[in-house]
Specification:
nine-stranded antiparallel beta sheet, alpha+beta, 340 residues, Beta-lactamase
Amino acid sequence: MRKNSLPILILSLGALLTYLFWPEPSLEEQMQNRHVPAVGIGVIEEGKVIRSEVIGELEAGVVAAPNAIFNVASLTKPVFAMLVLKLVELWEWDLDAPIHPHWIDHEIKEDVRHELLTTRILLSHQSGFPNWRWNHPSGKLAFEFDPGTRYQYSGEGFEYLKNAIQHKMGKPLQSLADSLLFSPLGLSHTSLVWGADMEQRPFAKWHDKSGGVYDTYKRKEGLAADDLLTTIGDYCTFSLDVINGAGLSPALYEDMISPQVKVNRKVDYGLGWLVVKDLPNAEYALVHSGADQGVRTMVVLLPKSKSGVVVFTNGDKGNKIVRRLMRENCPYGREILGAL
């Protein structure tokens, strides 16, 4: 050993021991350190919601209320997927019929590959589209590979399906969601649009990495892929319905949870959900996350044990908090997070 190696070794060992045994900050301290004012958490165990609360402030000086409304970013997608499956269950829509009789986006009408698009392909992120059309070098909607050949996460795929459904049904997405999903489940605090009553409701404003407040975008037309407004309580109700089969036939529910396409070695994509299988006790997980300006969210459901966790945050640096709460509250949380 070189003469001055021992002090370096001792310092390194000390640093490692400090890292391993230094106490983790409390949740509230971590929220403050990461400039995340509000955290919503819901926990489901044995088919019952055992925890549903919001901690912190919606913005500086505004204490969070239990019924605070969050924009949950891409946690919108499983909700839209369930709406589509409800239409399939009612024989109003078909998982495998071509989409083009109902909708063709004008930017891809000359590309014959639009005729390959089906609901199954779009709900499992196999459309061939980028996430958003402005991500493509042309700035327009375009295929980056043949539909149905591989996985690529795409909000555009969900919006394409929304447009087709609206065109066939002759109703806006909000109306369809109200009649088939929100009202039957009693989701009275959930909406795809910013209604007039939102001005009087407690809303978790979006915060940047330094704690500054972003402007609130007040959407007047609902998206299939993004910007659902909801509460922890309402999303737990939706999650519990999914765990309990959502009123779908066993065959259609099996379609939803079955791998449609490989995402990585441990994760597949079903219809609207990431599917993590091969967990202990033959369990599997339905997972989705959301990340937008000032928003980080996640839901993990374990249908076999009828458990799950929902976490909302209103800060750009909320991801570590989301993962912490998943580890602390979700069975197999570490295994699930490690697979993603």
